[in-house]
Amino acid sequence: MIRSLPNSTGYKIGFRVFVTLFFIFLLLPLIAVSVLAFNDSSAITLPWKGFTLDWFFANTDDRVGLFKDEELLTSIWISIQTAFAMALLSTIIGTIASLLFDKFNFKGKGVLYFFAIAPLVIPGVILGISILLASTAVGGKIESIFGIDAEIFSPGFWLVVIGQFSFGATYAMLLVSARLKKFDPALEEAALSLKATGLQSIWYITIPFLKPAIIGAFVVTFLMSFSNFNTTIFLVGSDPTLPVDLYSRIKFSSTPVLNAVSFMIVLAVSTFAFINLIINRNKK
Amino acid sequence: MENNKKVFYILLIPVLLWLVFLIIVPHIELLVSSFKPNSGDGGFTLENYQAFFSDKIYWKTFINTTLYAIGVTLLSFAVSFPIAFYLTKVVSPKYASFLTLLLLIPLWIGELVTIYGWVTLLGDNGVINEFLKYIGVIDKPLHLLYNNISMTIGLLYMSMLFMIVPIMTTLESLDDSMIEAASDLGASKLTIFRRIIIPHSMPGIINGSIIVFMLVIGDYVAPNILGGKSSLWFTEQIYNQFLSTFNWSQGAAFGFLLLGISSATIWVALRLSGQKLDKVGE
Amino acid sequence: MSGNILEIKNLSKYFDDFTALKDINISVKEGEFISILGPSGCGKTTLLRIIAGFLQESEGDILIEDKSMKGIPPEKRPVNIVFQSLALFPMMNVYENVAFGLKRQKLSKEEIKKSVLDMLSRVGLDGYDKKKINELSGGQKQRVAIARSLVMKPSILLLDEPLSALDRKLREHMKVELKELQKEIGTTFIYITHDQSEALVMSDRVAVINKGIIEQLDTPHNLYNNPETGFVAGFVGENNRFEIASRDGEQIVTKNGWRVTKPNLDFNPTLMYIRPEAFIVDPDENMEGVEVFEADITTILFDGANTKMLVKPEGKDEILIALPQNAKFQALKQGDRVKVAVAHENIKCYKE
To answer: Most buried of A194, B239, C185, C270 (most Cβ within 10 A)?
Structure first.
């Protein structure tokens, strides 16, 4: 039943068949979508009409490839900027939160921690609409009192960043906390005993120890932001992020250029993942 | 460090800003908005909630969505548990990290792309129909897309991973020698699963179920793209109110109801399993 | 100027209802090597953390160089700690570890370099400055931890059981090394330990703490030979412990029925201690001021120079007796009857 115990052939084969089917189920959509990016057809499905790179490079009346599609390229660029800002903010605040909850006991800590992990169990759509409602209310107040149109409170780039950050910080906090649990608090006391101030000991000792987790948190929140739809859709202004753009194209105007985008994402993520795997293997 | 007030406030203030302005205030605003009349002026009204209860399509969708989400969560557990068990306890460790990585790739690729992948697979001229035609099983395409089954596949696909990973984490902490000892004492496979493996991985199962349930009940993309005319999902009502009819107060009421039912279900799950919310993140 | 580098005055510490330390008074002279000895959970680590400033006292005060330490954070106190886990910074090499504290003081690069290399050579780690922490042996790590603290020129160095992670042989060796290092540099050491041998070997004076109270603060010699309380007698060194049932003039009877004479006793004791080496086997006939009794050997515990035997006098008591390995006693074996004497002054009685 496990590696070290003898198993019947039926058990082994049954298990293998199930796992194989599962991985086919897992990878089939990704493979299908990638292969069809090279189909010389205007339909997003079969039949196969031959190999082409049109969906990447063409710029004709009926075929606009990914690298010629200004709108698509813009939304990718916006997504990258959004993800970078969101990941940066989330990682910083997430790390601060994990330090706060790890090192200090204070009144109301339990309540505060509850709110900090609440985004794990709040659907993204709820976060999206609540932040939209709140920012609209605040923006309206500011406009009626000061007579200025505070753009940061209306749907747009920064509202998307803020909305995604509201839950991104939770994930960053949990990832950093997991490593912080392995930290020997004596190291920090040693720094204090060697006349470092509280902030210096965190900066020179704790943060370097947390570095791998902090980098991990940045990558995870970056990817979360890059693929987020549920929260973003409510906060997005006139410049859609990639997932928002993809959604409206899938709904209303699918062409294989969607496959081309998908293929690029699949390629980028897989490459990144395998480089990561190899690095980890070499470390061991 | 405990006595260092300066460090304490430097850490506390940003965290407070985050939680107060981005978590607490917006949810209060959500609740307040749901009692505002749609005209946009002030005042207090129950009309948004009355609309929910008086229109059958709203509350029926609400109940269906909840039940469906519970069903998908159970299905997700049924598929995920053997996989998690295989990856932690059965497969040679040489391949385990590679297979786990494969598992994570769809997550990082994102929901839109993977759901789109299913559209190309399940469409009338999609890969599956063409393949079945090619091997001669069918001559007319099967309508695989835009129904409850395709929607379920999409929901399962995008949420499954959040079930597998927490279960794997708990299974990794289960000492193999415990299974060996049980086997040595003559327990059957079924008994070992029932009495040792499942109880040990319970925290992971609960964590996974909570996250999967929340993701499924709050999802929009899979039901909207893969679901059919009859597969109404409650989030679609919220989207409609916010993005097509611009009745934000009504949308806020729906949002609050969704938040209520998902929190209540999670609370019941935590209660039944005796687990704490603090542990969900681990 | 009191002439004391450290004065702990009426110090108490409470955690909710629990009293961790009660009315502690210790004065330490400059250059002294003081050990705080006690079983785990006795409050010794709490005391160290209060001196270092990681914990706040509930009552009382601590004076270092005649300055009250009330409200002064750890980084502003003239003390440094060598931690039990050593707490060497794993992401830095030996040089960076030792230089860490100096860098915080904004000294010039040259000054730092000179001090660090000088300190490393004093602890015998010449040429180790570029080594990573995980490349060092246990003893070398120990020395880096000490160098890292000493380079700060603290008034007092606090050591929190720094030898406990080492294996036995290295620990024996480091005891001697540490004592010599302290003599050479002359810094005041306060050494926390639960190992009585470490405390006795290294210290000028030892404070024995039990349940948050100082039982005795004395030189190792006095602690061993004249323990003031039953706890000290039992905790410091090996000892035979007897519970007393009754006293009849000069006669004491243990609960297990052994009768001993102890003259000039002015109270009713409940406990009696006699060290294994206080017994004289096969004594001279005309010794004076001794209690002489006969006993049966139940077991010989051979351990080279530390060989001991268990004997049974009248009653059910069993007594551990050190057995010098000279020719005279080598023939002794289980079941033999021996004559044993113990000087009356070596019979220590206590009331609890």
So the answer is: A194
Residues C182 and C249 in one domain: no
| Pairwise CA distance, residues B171 & C147, whole Å | 45
- Say how far apart CA C280 and CA B109 lie, in whole Å: 85
| C323 touches C308 (CB < 8 A) | yes
Count CB neighbours of C149 within 10 A: 25
Domain span at residue A17 reads: 1-68+256-284
Kindly report, residue by residue over C300-323, the tens digit of the pLDDT: 888 888 888 888 887 778 889 888
Q: Strand C308-312's sheet: what is its strand order?
A: C279-281, C337-343, C290-301, C308-312, C319-322
Residue appearing with tokens 């079983």: C39
Residue A173 has pLDDT above 90, yes or no: yes
CA distance C11 to B277: 42
- 3-state class (DSSP) for residue A238: coil
Residue A95, pLDDT > 90, answer yes
Count: domains in chain A: 2
Model pLDDT for residues C331-349, shown as the tens digit of each residue: 788 888 888 888 888 888 8
Subunits with 3+ Cβ pairs within 8 Å of C are A, B
Please indicate if any CB of chain B lies within 8 Å of the CB of A15.
Answer: yes
| Residue-range definition of the domain harbouring residue B76 | 56-111+160-281
Q: Do B179 and A5 touch (CB under 8 A)?
A: yes
Which residue, chain included where needed, has tokens 């509930």? C58
The candidate with the shortest Cα–Cα distance to C10, out of C213, C215, C155, C231, is: C213
Does residue C147 sit in the same domain as residue C270?
no
Q: What is the pLDDT of residues C66-96, one digit of tens each?
A: 888 888 888 888 888 888 888 888 888 899 8
Ranges of H-type helices in chain A: 9-35, 54-57, 70-103, 109-117, 124-146, 157-180, 185-193, 198-201, 207-227, 232-235, 242-252, 257-283
For chain A, report the end-to-end CA distance as a whole number of angstroms: 28
Reply yes or no on whether the pLDDT at C58 is more than 70. yes
B106 touches chain A (CB under 8 A): yes
Best CA proximity match to A179, nearest among A210, A219, A208, A201: A210
The span from the CA of A261 to the CA of A242, in Å, is 10
Which of B11-25, C145-159, C280-294 is predicted least confidently?
C280-294
Q: How far is C192 from chain B (nearest CA, A)?
A: 22
Peptide bond preceding A47: is omega within 30 degrees of 0, i.e. cis? yes
Query: Under 8 Å CB-to-CB from B282, ≥6 apart: which residues?
Result: A174, A178, B169, B207
**Is the pLDDT assigned to residue C1 strictly greater than 60?**
no
Closest-CA residue to B200 (of B164, B161, B167): B167
Q: What is the mean pLDDT of residues C142-156?
A: 88
Q: Does residue B119 lie in a domain region? A: no
Give which of A160, A20, A1 is closest to A81, Cα–Cα. Answer: A160
Prediction ipTM score: 0.86
Tell me which chain A residue has its CA closest to the CA of residue C156: A193
Tokens 């704790």, located at residue: A206
Residue of C nearest to B6 (CA): C73
User: pLDDT tens for residues C233-254?
Assistant: 888 888 888 888 888 877 888 8
Q: What share of chain C is helix, strand, coil (3-state, %, to 5)?
A: 25, 35, 40
Residue C94 maps to which CATH number? 3.40.50.300
